[in-house]
Amino acid sequence: MDIVLVLYLLIGFMIVAAVIAIEAKDLLSSVVSVSAAGAGLSIVFLLLGAPDLAITQVVVEVLSLVILIRATVTRKDTTYDSRPNTFAVAGGLVFCALLCAVCYYAFAHMVPFGDPKMTMGMPYLMNTFERTGAANAVMGTILDFRAYDTLGEATVIFASIIGAYVLLRHVGRRSAADQESASPTRKSSATEWRTP
Amino acid sequence: MIPYVLAIVLLAVGVYAIACKRNLIKVILGVMIADYAVNLFLILMGYRTGVGGAPIRTPAMDTPEKFAAASVDPLPQALILTSIVIGLGMTALMAALAIRLHEKYGTFDVAEMKKLQG
Amino acid sequence: MRGMTLIVRTVTSLVSAFILLYGIYVVLYGHLSPGGGFPGGVILGSCLILMVLAFGKKFVDQIVSERAPYLWDCVGALAFLAIALLGYYGGQFFYNVLVPAGSHEGTAVAGNYRLFSSGIILPCNIAIGLKVAACLFGVFAVLSIFRPKNPREDQTP
Asked: Could you say which architecture CATH assigns to the domain B2-113?
């Protein structure tokens, strides 16, 4: 089958999964549906010649699913859209239609799909192996030619994870029940989990 | 051009969820969908029809010209790798915010949180 | 948080060694095959999260102190920065000091496609893998293990 046809099918699947995710009444169904869209994106990455990105997208998807389920499934109330705000919904739909129409006219002047200019990609491909010794051109790009961007990315991850720590820690001392349940010795805990 | 327009349709779905939904978790899912749409758009710009191989060099490709004639553009892939990992950090921070807001207000409803107290 | 049933605990104790080995492979061989520091670190973090989910909170509370994930997170980030500053020995920030210039013409040279063949990329991958694994495990630990029993009594007024 032609690769463009498979691409249309996969992107259509992603759009359907996204629409189901934002319209479903149950929070667990929405979260699982967004993860299905992410899995579709990983297959698109593999088809378009990017195995690095496919691995990264799959594992990041699984971890986002775990974190979101931890945040949502244990809560009781699920949906509040019983009286939708008509003006907001109408405005949202008009904006989305305008966005699609403007982009349709703008893309007529872009490079066609499948034929990129590669102004900077060609020098990277020609010089990666000789100058850095890495057979994987993407790794050579992000850790040698453009290592500053990777430093910025590590900083952004560091800052956002520290923000999550600060929000979720408990302020003050642990309660007495927590302290006495955390004090038995290691030996008793080792036997505790081995016996069924 | 059609694959680009489909990626923008996905972006429009995400932006609709951010702007018009009252449940905080649906807003977070909208941000994630918009992130996927932007990554999809970037990778569509790097594909070379008819060539389509991964940018990984094997010993069979002796000269750089052979390697460059058999692989797709590596620069969008480098940018998207950064973007995927930053999206994960964003999801973790938004989920932490949602948990704390639920503990303070008892609900995920954005309209309830915006009401003036007293 | 309680642990899971006997089947899950047995399978986890058998399988987690292989998952950790795969994660370390993806980190170390990042410059020769698809992968690298970021996906490898996420795989390692996911394996640690699997062990927490299967064995429960009480077991993990005694092995991992509350500060351990934050400490390894900072160690990884500082190691990456130290490798970057090491480049000043060669003249620029992030200069690839371990690759001698002009040594990789053609593929018949012995030493190409090997593990130690790409200079600064391998230590960078290890530092990033350590950092990402520690920070993701730390976020999960804070979400589920180190939460107080009754959150409302611990809020600042």
From this structure: Orthogonal Bundle (1.10)
- Residue B57, H or E segment: none
Do B3 and A4 count as a contact with CB atoms less than 8 A apart?
yes
Q: Where are the domains of chain A?
A: 1-75, 119-168
Q: ipTM value of the model?
A: 0.91
Which chain C residue is nearest to residue B64, measuring alpha carbons? C106
The pTM assigned to this predicted structure is 0.86
- What separation in angstroms does the CA of C130 have from each of B108, C21, C30, C32, C39? 35, 14, 14, 19, 11
The subunits that touch chain A, with at least 3 C-beta pairs less than 8 Å apart, are B, C
- SS3 label, residue C87: helix
Domain boundaries, chain C: 6-154
As a whole number of Å, the CA-based R_g of chain A is: 24
State which amino acid sits at residue B87.
G
Q: For the CA atoms of A73, A76, A79, A83, what is the dihedral angle to 10 degrees? A: -170
| Contacts B85 to C, Cβ<8 Å | 38, 132
Decide if B59 contacts C107 (C-beta within 8 A).
yes
Helix (H) or strand (E) holding A77: none
Paired with C113 in beta bridges are C111
pLDDT band at C97 (very low <50, low <70, confident <90, very high): low
